Amino acid sequence: MPSYKLYYFNLRARAEPSRLILAAAGVDYEDVRIKRENWPAEKASGKFPLGQMPCLEVDGVMLAQSNAIARYLANEHGLAGKNNMEKARADMIVDTMGDLSPHLVKIIKEQDETKKDELKKEFTSKTLPACNTSLEKLLIQNNGGDGYFVGSELTWADLVFVNHVQRPLPGPSSVDAFPKLKALYEKVIALPKISEWIEKRPKTDM
Ligand SMILES: N[C@@H](CCC(=O)N[C@@H](CS)C(=O)NCC(=O)O)C(=O)O
Questions:
Q1: Assembly ipTM
Q2: Which end of the chain is less congested by CB atoms within 10 angstroms, N or C?
Q3: Same domain, 58 and 121
């Protein structure tokens, strides 16, 4: 088993899918959480290939880009899908959630509180429900929506979905109106390795 070091800020955000994958796989790793005040020096050190985090160090080799890292870990630990079609469906579901990122970044970066509230309202009333509608449709295409997103076993798409539901905006109730998604969320967070990680992980705002 390689030695893994996962570098990020003390946040769930872009690193949490990889942490959930490592938890589901029962793999040991070093969860390195760099303090904001130390980041400029770390960034300037040249250690991080793109000058950004998350990064995963695998036996001394650095990988950047959160989705590339998560997909690599999923492939390594049997959570990517059983064949290329399953893998492509898992990617499709992950990318569907990834389409929300620019909206979230815009909200986080907005300094004007009135504009921020407007963006949040737009996100919670339109953007997020549209995404969840698409996700539920994709879920129902597999086993009528009563299993996992892909095939017959847990994949990283289900774990990225857990992080999607637990996003700080608009809060953990975002799938209440989507019964199949809600049932999937509850099933995945109840898996022993996942519930253990959620219980013990550092408590952060996002
Ligand atoms: N597309 C990249 C984006 C990475 C990214 O934006 N990282 C931010 C934190 S979420 C960062 O490192 N910011 C500090 C900086 O750019 O100096 C990914 O998904 O990993």
A1: 0.99
A2: N
A3: no
